[in-house]
Amino acid sequence: MAGGALKYRHLSRTSSHRQALLRNLVTSLITHESIRTTWHKAKEAQRLAEKLITLGKKNTAASRRRAETIFYQPLKHLPKLFTTLRQRYLNRPGGYTRVLRIEPMNKHHDQAPSAILELVDGPRDMRFSMTAKTLVRERKREDGEGGGDGSGVREITAENVRKVTRFRKNGVEKLEEMVRRMEAAEGDEKKREARRRRVIWQVDERRREGWKERDP
Length: 216
Hints:
single chain; about 220 residues; extended
């Protein structure tokens, strides 16, 4: 109806094509737990993914039959939905997916708004890794290594830590483990950079000595 509220995005496709597209996107999301697509496709696929995970949490015969109609290969994807994902989100009341805006994937053509659609509390949870990276940086500042005032972790970072660990099993321990890995990787990177600079300096010194020997 003209002037009515938008109930869903048509995505410039027929109804059957639109449903096939969303089923493919949701299947890829369940398989890989993180996908990149356009913003509008991500928002529509998010709605279907939330309903699908809710079916997995119900774990009834009716919900299994409904989930089978969404997957193109139900025997391959249903076990993960009704075991791994069901256990992961058993205590979470909702919000199983997250949409993050990114730069347009196709910069040279239409520059359509792009996004990452991901499952929260999973191994590819981007906000979880971003929070760990922020903790590494702010703890360095607290120790006085980053030129800061040593005031510690900011309030907004503490709130993000609470959000990303609230429903994740052993969330605080896993976050600290990721922080330690990042700190170790950062230390190894500094060592590699120091070795690289030392090698470059040695090569330059040998070149200068060779030029001095050739000069009359």
